[in-house]
Write a structure and sequence with these properties.
There is one protein chain. The chain is 79% helix and 0% strand. With 199 residues, it is mostly helical. The chain has one domain: Tetracycline Repressor, domain 2 (Orthogonal Bundle), CATH 1.10.357. The protein is elongated.
């Protein structure tokens, strides 16, 4: 039952936002009593912590699956962006990450400290892959570009209230990041990915 509560809460938090969803909402959606939820979680903050951990694991599993497909580095980044877009497609008004930072800052900082480490590793591996494929310039300072990109992405998510707007800005950031690193061959691949999105 505990895992089912976490799964349902995670779904509702992503759709409606961390602040908006109450324990009553979760109980109602599951057709159980609120008392049952409190049997496993003494308060909403503990449930949010468990839910963010679940989402964190799910995101990482999906990204690992995408990376395992062995697309080229630029295609890989676009597919990961599409995964995030699908994950938050039912929540276009209120960004869950923005709400988490605003209303539950301690949980947010714990989540982000893990995310920065993990994302930095992925970004670096993607850059190394792109260099091997001659899509990114070989003379890049990889650590600096990793820092540029995660600072940009996390800043967008932290400060943008609307999930739709956040996704639009993230696409611009991905294009900006890719153009900054790309070889002529990489620019060709970037244009191909952008054209696929528009179609």
């Amino acid at each position: 039952m505990k895992e089912k509560i976490i799964a349902k809460a995670s779904d509702l938090f992503l759709k409606l936002g961390f602040k908006s969803v109450t324990m009553d909402d979760i109980a109602g959606e599951m057709c159980i009593s609120k008392k049952t939820i409190y049997k496993y979680f003494c308060n909403k903050e503990i449930l949010i912590e468990e839910s963010t951990s679940l989402v964190h694991r799910q995101v990482h599993e999906i990204i690992d699956t995408i990376v395992a497909k062995n697309h080229n580095a630029i295609h890989e980044n676009f597919e990961i962006r599409e995964m995030f877009r699908n994950m938050f497609k039912n929540n276009i008004d209120a960004s869950p990450i923005y709400q988490l930072k605003k209303h539950y800052p301690e949980i947010y900082h714990n989540v982000m400290s893990q995310e920065i480490d993990q994302c930095s590793q992925w970004f670096k591996e993607n850059i190394e892959k792109g260099i091997r494929q001659n899509l990114y310039r070989a003379d890049l300072n990889k650590d600096i570009y990793v820092k540029f990109y995660y600072t940009l992405i996390f800043h967008i998510n932290e400060t943008t209230v609307s999930e739709r707007e956040s996704q639009e800005i993230e696409l611009e950031a991905l294009e900006y990041h890719t153009r900054a690193m790309a070889t002529p061959e990489g620019i060709t691949e970037l244009e191909k990915q952008l054209k696929n999105l528009r179609n």
